[in-house]
Amino acid sequence: MNNWLTEDHLIHLPNLFEHLGYRVVQSENTHLILKNGGEHYVIINTEKGYFYYKVQRPQEKLSASDLITEHVSKVEGIGKELIWDKVDSLYNKVLETITLLISNNPESTLKIVPKDYNHFLSYRSPLQDTSKDLYHGVESSIPFSGRVFQNHEGGPLFPLFNLQNEVCGYFQDTDKEVVPYKESAIKHSLWYSNIPKRIEGLFLFKDPKEALAFHKKFQLKNVVYMALGAINSQTTDILFQIQKLTKVDKLFLSFTGNKKIEGYLRDLHFISYTKDSYFNLTLTDRDMLLRFPMGKEKSFSRFYDHTRRFNQDLAQSFLNFNKIIDQNRLNKYSILVSKDNEDIKIRLPLESNAIKLIVWSYYKNYLNKTIDILKPKSDNWYTEWKNTQNQVNEGKEVQLKEYRIAL
Predict the structure, then answer these.
(1) Range of the domain at 159
(2) Are residues 70 and 158 in the same domain?
(3) Predicted confidence band at 392 (pLDDT cuts at 50, 70, 90)?
(4) Is 80 exposed, middle or buried (0-12, 13-18, 19+ CB in 10 A)?
(5) Distance CA 109, CA 77 (A)
(6) I need a labelling partner for 370 at 20 to 30 A (CA). Which of 7, 36, 86, 166 fits?
(7) Domain end marker among 248, 269, 290
(8) What is the residue-averaged pLDDT of the chain?
(9) 17 or 397: which carries more pLDDT confidence?
């Protein structure tokens, strides 16, 4: 029988948070939002008392003992104290502190809500202004119906989903850029369009606005569009879970940015998280260091030949401006390739042509069966769509192939 840490219902959770150094950043009649060390926490009041959740997991409701455990886990113990010694000590001190008990604070300022309450759902309402060119007819679009909302100011919101398919934030289109909305858990989630009964492709973008512009241009059917605001182990894990459920072998990658180099950098960053690629990436202030298995001799031979020709062209171009090659200057912008046992090591300069070459060559020689890389002729898909929206697009499949990455 459990008789330890059973008095959470006596503890005034808002006061405990503030007592432990958390700062209230937003106060509503249904919830409080607090922040500490970059993390956001939400407190609610239910029929069974106070609970809280982290913004990345609204479905997981926690109580006072969970907060105490998390707090002491970051505090070094005295002597041979283990975590449970620290939890027990602080838990008893809290129960002995009158100002931290509900009995001393009987009037709650928070309205009682259901235990499954998710404050992110209160931020949105149905999209009303669909007169803007890109959002015209979006609610009748099969992939995007119910996947675009608006905030209280009328700006478009795209819901972010965590691994448990719970809404844990939004992308917001501000017209100038697409950014995380308020305390959204952008590093723990992704956006995806509606899933059709038959799926023929998964398409990945940096944000949903790019996905919408891409769809407006190509009008593809039986596909799922996805957007990663952050590329890390959490977001890619959700992506690969979706890929596994949909049983689609190939991903169509189409990262973009304000400049083309941003898209190529995102490509490399994403590749470093792909399953079984063993593709390691380290970024410095001057260059990028890559390491990955050599694979088949034929693949490596072609890859090496591409980098060798790039370096030769770079040196020849240098001679157009100076009769003598400055080797130190040339080396800074050359692609340096070496072998370490069965691995390839690369020093890649932070220069758009060099990065594009590596993305293209790695894709051609190592990823062709699992990933297709598509790039707009403009810097991004929104600009591409704007430039061609008055054109009639016939033969969509052929047209899509024309956007595969090429040198």
Answers:
(1) 118-248
(2) no
(3) low
(4) exposed
(5) 36
(6) 166
(7) 248
(8) 92
(9) 17
Is residue 3 domain-resident? no
What does the pLDDT look like over 16-75, one tens digit per residue?
999 999 999 999 999 999 999 899 999 999 999 999 999 999 999 999 999 999 999 988
Whether 324 has a pLDDT exceeding 80, the answer reads yes
List residues bridging with 49 in a β-sheet.
46
Q: What is the CA radius of gyration of the chain?
A: 26
Q: Is residue 95 part of a domain?
A: yes
Task: Classify residue 116 by burial, with Cβ atoms within 10 Å: 0-12, 13-18, 19+.
Answer: exposed
pLDDT at res. 31: 98
Q: Judge residue 192's burial from the number of C-beta atoms within 10 Å of its C-beta, 0-12 exposed, 13-18 middle, 19 or more buried.
A: buried
Reduced 3-state DSSP string for the chain: CCCCCCCHHHECHHHHHHHCCCEEEEECCCCEEEEECCEEEEEEEECCEEEEEECCCCCCCECHHHHHHHHHHCCCCCCCCCHHHHHHHHHHHHHCCHHHEHHHCCCCCCCECCCCCCHHHHHCEECCCCCCHHHCCHHHCCCCCCCCEECCCCCEEEEEECCCCCEEEEEEECCCCEEECCCCCHHHCEEECCCCCCCCEEEEECCHHHHHHHHHHHCCCCEEEEECCCCCHHHHHHHHHHHHHHCCCCEEECCCCCCHHHHHHHHHHHHCCCCCCCCEEEECCCEEEEEEECCCHHHHHHHHHHHHHHHHHHHHHHHCCCCCCCHHHHHHCCCEEEEECCEEEEEEECCHHHHHHHHHHHHHHHHCCCEEEECCCCCCHHHHHHHHCCCCCCCHHHHHHCCECCC
**pLDDT of 395 higher than 50:** no
Read off the tokens for 279. 């593709």
Among 230, 248, 266, give the residue marking a domain's end.
248
Lowest mean pLDDT among 75-89, 217-231, 252-266: 75-89
Q: Hunting for tokens 């308020």 — which residue is that?
A: 182
Q: Are 244 and 219 part of one and the same domain?
A: yes
